[in-house]
Amino acid sequence: MASNQPYLRRVRKYVPQPGVDDDEPPKNAVPTTNARMATRAPQVQHHLPTSRMYKHLRSRSQSQANFSEHTINHTHSHSHSHSQSQSSSMGSRYARKAASTAQLSQQQQPTTIESLISKPPASLTEALQDLRHLILTQGVAADAEGNSALRIYIWSILLGVAPMRTNEYVTLVRRGASSSYSKIRNDTFRTLATDPLFRRRVSESSIIRLLNAFQWKMKDTGVDAQYVQGMNVIAAPFLYAARSEVEAFSLFAVFIQRECPGYVRPTMEGVHSGLKLVDQCLETVDLKLFAHLQTKFLTAELYAFPSVLTLSACTPPLPEVLKLWDFLLAYGAHLNILCVVAQLLLMRDELLAAQSPMKLLRQFPPLNAKKIIETAVRLVKRIPAELFDQLVDHAR
Length: 396
Known about the structure:
Elements lengths: L4 H10 L37 H8 L8 H4 L10 H19 L12 H4 L7 H14 L13 H9 L6 H9 L6 H8 L7 H6 L2 H18 L9 H11 L3 H15 L9 H17 L1 H9 L4 H4 L1 H5 L8 H14 L4 H11 L1 H6 L3 H5 L7 H12 L4 H9 L3
Helix pairs in contact: 4-22, 6-18, 9-11, 11-12, 11-13, 12-13, 14-15, 14-19, 18-22, 19-22
């Protein structure tokens, strides 16, 4: 117990102490986790004026969310279990539709995301399709620093995250240092260390608490997961965008458990599968560039590991990362593989002209989310069915 005392002192000092929260949490408290169409309606009306659709979308049961299997046309069928693939297939199927449809009927489309979520949806199916389409065509409104009043609510809707009781997070934090605590401490100080926006808003203590609490949560649920390098960077966008540390924790926990559990297993097989898919997709869409890199003995394992592991969150600037994540959360985190390929295509001329391409690949150019997303969406149509199915499943 003595070894945990300094850690617990830091916990008591830094854990937020809100006065009132959902479902009467204790006075010593901290915000959110659950499934894609959560069964609990969130208590956020006092925070979000345009919360009526938000409440309706997130109060539907998980079984009601099965609509996507029947209403969203996809050019490929999946044979894996519905429970394992539902969240990714929802987005990926609609991504196929978005890539092949020039424009949805403007008469049926709300003009903005805010107008969409300002009223209860007549159809949950159409509302989620409209939300994804608006994210793709208009993006989430934000200022130059990536601040957005709506983004965290949109992410919660897309992930189906209902508010967790504040004291649930506090309980995890107060358990002290997990078995991964030393590994976490070795990484957290490096999290987006050169990004002044992130360093100004998110403390290292918050990152430590979130990651350490997640390790306790995984241990309690018996999931074969451990802290791996890069999880700190995946946590960063959630901590930056969320209103509170607890809200960031709940989104992060659901995202890791449902979207990319294979990335955090001890062998990191999901990451290595993703790297192989980068090579396969590049070979499919640009054989010349792929062959050029092969002549230099450059595979994705050598240059794309950070981008795959962190879902491109390792590449600045942070406001562009948030825009890219809006797309990934809407259509499926597995599409980050195509976003990595898109970044290669955007530097194609430079790579083909370079005698030492690794000098360029050692650090990718600053993210341009709009160009990357546009390129990735075009690539979706060019990926064969079997390869696309591997893409959807690789992180599981």
